[in-house]
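Journal club prep — side note

Before the paper discussion, L.F. wants everyone to see what a predicted structure for a comparable chain looks like in token form. Sequence:
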Amino acid sequence: MHRDYYFGHLPSNVLALSGYEFFQFIQSILGEPEVNLLKKISVKTTSSFMNIEDPLAVLKQDIDDEELEILKKQLCFKMKNDNYLIKPGVESGFSSLQKALKEKLNQQINSSTKKKQQRNGDVSSISSLTLSSQEAKTSSFSLPEHKSHVLQLIKKWCNDNKENFNLENFQLEEDIDFTLNIQFDENSTVQATIKCKCGKLISLCRNGSKIQVSNYYKHLHSFGCSRMKEIKRDNRKPQVQQQQLQSTITSLRVSTSQSCVSPVEAHADEIADTQSTPNESSVSRSQSSLNLKRPIPSGSQHSASTKRSRR
């Protein structure tokens, strides 16, 4: 009866028993002396009972304890030399119960593992169905829809990277900066490439059935893209021209302000120059004025003067 109970009718919660319930279970299976022995060695739960290698080992030790002496008389045979031999049924009962409990534990572990795998499988199946549904949805894109999707991605990327490239107006135009080629292969899988104006042909990856443009972005960031160099150079030309124009306007304003002197200011400067330092022309004018005021001698006066000088 006990063997059938061990292997076929163990309680569903047998592995979680402790205290009173555990001792009641042991008594129903093995007996009251066995319960007293487990209490003596402080085995109070199913888990500790399974972990202890030999619950009966204490009976084989030479221990001075009255309670153990009573348990030895109940669970062992006293030999003529005053030693004790554990009854075979007692040993078999403990070992069989431990074995049954361990098998129960393994069954629960296996059952839990299978349930977990089943749950994971269900989740994987749901994920696969969801992904398949999404792929079916995206794979239904037509070529124009795929093309529109790629162009929108490029436009957004340009707007997001204006500051990174230091470009005020940055847009990449199809057939000007790049050529986009999208087609379906024999398996109805979309394939796409971009040929940059610099001559580089870039294959575009896919995320599911959607086209990704990251490879093209990496190329634009590289030093080998001459098209990006042209775009940066062309973007700097208006700035340089504007700076040159501003510099020219500033120079003209300075020159004009220096040359524009009023007539009153000019006359005042002339008077100041005349008063401070007379020049040659003013001296010459003074001499001319003196010559005009001096009388010119007549012929008779000139002759008389000559005669007087001869005397």
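L.F.'s comment for the group: The beta strands are 76-78, 84-86, 178-184, 190-196, 201-204, 206-207, 210-211. Keep this in mind when we get to the figures.
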